[in-house]
């Protein structure tokens, strides 16, 4: 890794460590949700941005992860066991949800996953004996690790940060590995990839399963953060929100979803003063951004940087070659 | 048996309205690969145009309906194409999906903020008397809805197959490249498609609002049902969308009566998943190429 | 009782097609076609439009199921094999349409083409990002004279360069048989010469076997060692290029339609 990037990385981590210092509980809560949604959005970025498989069900996996980990911790499991269990369950369900992707693509897949999200919502709401129905689950404990109690908000932030950094590092490794290359090949040209020995069936299913398990992990972090979960927190709207994070940030870019999650989580806070109009302003912003910059913020950044650096030699040939 | 018949008939009536939205959805997809996630809101909004026409401008009902149709054609047809879809077309499906989702939220929130968050009564076009058919009591409203919807669909079919413009539109949808070579003005044909979609949504709005009342949040369930109907029917065919709409209307109505209220909403979704897995081209559709 | 003894058992053909038939609706696209391809051969498959080349190709590649007959690669049946399994059996291919991964660099395109043949699923997740293939990939890129472009995005290359890359990808995994579907299509003359010359050199150096479908007669005649002519789904002629050139039946098939 070039020295410059290493320094930037360390500065970034230092900023994340310093961010909550001196802040009130609410600000720290917002920072925690940013990290948690970043994890969920990273998962969706793998499925959608790298492997090119549309999924509108990431919130459902957050829900499955949140309820699984909450129920297990309430039954006496430690979080460190409950969270992997939640991820494993999401992995398996993600595999199953990946099967339709082997048959249908694009908009069809969007609708299958959309339907799945709504079905999960119905189950969470209706199976009261397990999920507490629309009242949800109350009194979820925050974990403690070898005496480090995450009950204080700032402790929980650092706990979330550690998980986030581990996930980010693993994700970085994954997308650079041959698996990552195979995922991108799947997105760019599945038929050619298949003819080169890439088992596209297996990679499609894995893209769903891994992406979903990250959604599950995000859920397993969200449950102890809020200490209360109910079905509406995992409805379709939230899947769309996570999708928005990925697309607005820049799908297929490592930092895209992290940036997107920051924007989607933080912007409402800035728009708070507008009260009732906040959703409208929000929607209008997304609309305008999509119309003027369909590749997301990272794409926009690259375009601006490209303008400053001057056009690269071959960039002009590019369009000709794609015709 | 009478009960079953009654449920089926009223299901067909609502289903025919869903079919209108589903057909518009299908047309947009064919003409410009646009998946309109705001389709439900497109059906929700014209009712409010009528209400604005009646209560704010003081127009009589039928004039207000014409006013609403005109406004829909401009806003939901022409402007939607020009300002939202056209700039994004070169960038694939995903930005359009996001933008139409955002547009849907924008429309919904605007109605909530600027008109009312409460459900508004909407004038029915026909009296609410009922008639007895084989022991089932069917409302005039249901019969009128079914008749009007089917009439619209037949008219649309006639337009698409029987007129030159209609055939040009079909050619554009099937193969824009060839159509252009043959001298078809593609841009105009796509615009017509958007206008037809707006008109279909408006008619659906007029028919469904007396039943469900006009409410800002109506779009979501209507849109979802329209998607399901379009996919179940086959996505690339008007006939398919019609059959899909009718089927979903009936299934939904039967589910409401015979399945637990809690899981009623799950039935159309399960139908969707099964159809996609077993017959991805839809009940009426022809197979398109698969990638995997 | 007489036994028919196969002579020269060492020469198991790389590709063996036996009594292959395939029809679509009522049209017999491929009728009872049999031929072998020996190691090191460059076989050209030509014929007028609609003569059954593509259906034959698709049957060989396991893309469509033949109505009758068998296809063996290195003595193993291709029936029911998925494209990725067939590739693992040692079959490389190119497509009629250009097929590269435009958003990946040239080097990454080539590494992708080799990575699934190295290590296990596990090692591909936790091992080196390049699966230890950078050296080998660079050698191949240099061989196809794309060395100066190795870090460029494949999508930014010229059409001819992409065609070379496309072919190079098919060779990366060291296949025993490579099927080239119209490699010359759309390539300009200079690039065509260099493509042909590279293919011949590759064949000579590594002893790999090619089957080529091609419309460009000059290209086929100068590239291939043996040519099969299809018409109406049947093989009507077979032999070295010079014999085919003067075969009256072939001329009839092309001119008489």
TrEMBL record, chain A:
Q: Where in the cell is it found?
A: Cell membrane
Q: Does the keyword Cell division apply?
A: no
InterPro entries this protein is in?
A: ABC_transp_permease, LivM-like
A single GO molecular-function term is: branched-chain amino acid transmembrane transporter activity
The portions of this protein that span the membrane are 28-48, 55-73, 79-99, 106-124, 155-175, 205-230, 242-267, 279-300
Its Gene Ontology cellular component terms are: plasma membrane
Which UniProt keywords are present, listed alphabetically? Answer: Cell membrane, Membrane, Transmembrane, Transmembrane helix
Asked whether the keyword Plastid is assigned, the reply is no
Entry membrane topology: Multi-pass membrane protein
Please give the name of this protein: Branched-chain amino acid ABC transporter
UniProtKB/TrEMBL annotation, chain B:
Bilayer topology? Multi-pass membrane protein
Q: List the GO biological process terms.
A: amino acid transport
What Pfam families has UniProt attached to this entry? BPD_transp_2
What keywords tag this UniProt record? Amino-acid transport, Cell membrane, Membrane, Transmembrane, Transmembrane helix, Transport
Positions of transmembrane segments:
12-31, 43-76, 88-107, 143-160, 190-212, 224-251, 263-282
* Cellular localization per UniProt: Cell membrane
Protein family membership: Belongs to the binding-protein-dependent transport system permease family. LivHM subfamily.
Report the protein name in the record: Branched-chain amino acid ABC transporter
UniProtKB/TrEMBL annotation, chain C:
UniProt entry tagged with the keyword Transport: yes
ABC transporter domain span: 15-257
Can you tell which superkingdom this protein's organism belongs to?
Bacteria
Q: Pfam families this protein is in?
A: ABC_tran, BCA_ABC_TP_C
GO MF entry, a single one: ATP binding
Keywords, alphabetical: ATP-binding, Nucleotide-binding, Transport
Q: Which PROSITE patterns match?
A: ABC_TRANSPORTER_2
Which residue positions does the secretion signal occupy? none
Q: Which GO terms describe its cellular component?
A: plasma membrane
- Recorded protein name is Branched-chain amino acid ABC transporter
């Amino acid at each position: 890794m070039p020295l410059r990037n290493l320094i930037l990385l360390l500065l970034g981590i230092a900023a994340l460590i310093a961010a909550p210092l001196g802040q009130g509980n609410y600000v720290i809560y917002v920072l925690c949700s940013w990290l948690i949604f970043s994890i969920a959005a990273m998962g969706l970025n793998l499925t959608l941005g790298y492997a090119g498989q549309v999924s509108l069900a990431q919130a459902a996996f957050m829900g499955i992860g949140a309820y699984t980990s909450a129920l297990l911790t309430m039954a006496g499991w430690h979080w460190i066991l409950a969270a992997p269990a939640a991820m494993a369950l999401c992995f398996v369900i993600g595999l199953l949800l990946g099967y339709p992707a082997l048959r249908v693509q694009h908009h069809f897949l969007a609708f299958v996953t959309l339907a799945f999200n709504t079905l999960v919502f119905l189950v969470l709401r209706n199976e009261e004996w397990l999920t507490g129905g629309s009242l949800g689950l109350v009194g979820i404990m925050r974990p403690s690790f070898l005496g480090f109690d995450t009950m204080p908000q700032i402790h929980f932030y650092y706990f979330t940060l550690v998980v986030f950094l581990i996930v980010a590092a693993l994700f970085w490794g994954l997308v650079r590995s041959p698996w990552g290359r195979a995922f991108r090949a799947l997105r760019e040209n599945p038929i050619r990839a298949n003819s080169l020995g890439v088992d596209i069936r297996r990679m499609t299913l894995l893209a769903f399963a891994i992406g979903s398990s990250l959604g599950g992990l995000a859920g397993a972090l969200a449950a102890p953060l809020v200490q209360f979960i109910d079905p509406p927190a995992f409805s379709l709207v939230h899947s769309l929100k996570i999708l928005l994070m990925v697309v607005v940030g820049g799908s297929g870019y490592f930092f895209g979803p992290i940036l997107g999650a920051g924007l989607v989580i933080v912007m409402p806070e800035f728009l708070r003063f507008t009260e009732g109009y906040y959703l409208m302003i929000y929607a209008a912003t997304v609309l305008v951004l999509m119309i003027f910059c369909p590749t997301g913020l990272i794409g926009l950044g690259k375009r601006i940087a490209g303008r400053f650096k001057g056009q690269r030699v071959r960039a002009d040939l590019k369009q000709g070659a794609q015709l | 048996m009478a009960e079953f018949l009654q449920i089926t008939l009223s299901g067909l009536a609502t289903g025919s309205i869903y079919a209108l939205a589903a057909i518009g959805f299908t047309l947009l997809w064919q003409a410009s690969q646009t998946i309109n996630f705001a389709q439900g809101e497109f059906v929700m909004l014209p009712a409010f145009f009528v209400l604005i026409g009646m209560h704010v401008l003081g127009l009589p009902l039928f004039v207000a309906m014409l006013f609403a149709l005109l406004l829909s054609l401009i806003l939901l047809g022409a402007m939607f194409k020009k300002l939202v879809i056209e700039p994004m077309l070169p960038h694939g499906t995903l930005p359009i999906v996001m933008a139409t989702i955002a547009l849907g939220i924008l429309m919904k929130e605007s109605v909530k903020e600027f008109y009312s968050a409460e459900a508004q009564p909407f004038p029915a076009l026909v009296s609410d008397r009922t008639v007895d058919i084989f022991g089932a009591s069917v409302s005039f409203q249901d019969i009128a809805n079914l008749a009007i919807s089917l009439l619209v669909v037949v008219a649309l079919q006639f337009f698409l197959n029987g007129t030159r413009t209609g055939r040009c539109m079909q050619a554009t949808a099937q193969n824009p490249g060839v159509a252009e070579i043959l001298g078809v003005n593609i841009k105009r044909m796509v615009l017509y498609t958007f206008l037809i979609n707006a008109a279909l949504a408006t008619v659906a709005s007029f028919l469904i609002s007396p039943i469900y009342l006009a409410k800002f949040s109506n779009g979501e369930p209507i849109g979802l049902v329209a998607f399901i109907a379009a996919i179940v029917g086959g996505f690339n065919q008007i006939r398919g969308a019609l059959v899909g709409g009718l089927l979903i209307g009936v299934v939904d109505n039967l589910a409401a009566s015979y399945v637990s209220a809690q899981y009623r909403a799950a039935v159309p979704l399960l139908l969707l998943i099964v159809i996609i897995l077993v017959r991805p081209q839809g009940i009426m559709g022809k197979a398109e190429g698969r990638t995997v | 009782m007489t036994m028919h003894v196969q002579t020269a058992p060492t020469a198991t053909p790389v590709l063996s097609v036996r009594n292959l038939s395939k029809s679509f609706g009522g049209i017999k696209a491929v009728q009872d076609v049999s031929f072998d391809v020996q190691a090191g051969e460059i076989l050209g498959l030509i014929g007028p439009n609609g003569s059954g080349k593509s259906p034959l190709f698709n049957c060989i590649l396991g893309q469509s199921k033949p109505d009758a007959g068998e296809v063996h690669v290195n003595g193993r049946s291709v029936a029911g094999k998925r494209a990725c399994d067939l590739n693992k059996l040692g079959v490389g291919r190119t497509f009629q349409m250009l097929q590269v991964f435009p958003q990946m660099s040239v080097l990454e395109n080539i590494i992708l083409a080799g990575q699934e043949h190295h290590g296990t699923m596990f090692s591909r997740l936790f091992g080196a990002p390049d699966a230890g293939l950078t050296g080998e990939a660079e050698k191949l890129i240099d061989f196809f004279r794309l060395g100066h472009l190795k870090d460029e995005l494949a999508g930014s290359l010229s059409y001819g360069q992409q065609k070379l890359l496309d072919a190079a990808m098919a060779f990366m995994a060291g296949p025993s048989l490579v099927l080239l579907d119209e490699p010359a299509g759309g390539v300009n003359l200079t690039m065509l010469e260099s493509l042909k010359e590279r293919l011949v050199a590759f064949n000579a150096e590594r002893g790999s076997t090619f089957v080529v479908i091609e419309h460009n007669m000059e290209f086929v005649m100068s590239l291939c060692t043996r040519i099969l002519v299809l018409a109406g789904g049947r093989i009507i002629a077979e032999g070295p290029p010079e014999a085919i050139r003067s075969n009256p039946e072939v001329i009839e098939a092309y001119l008489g339609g």
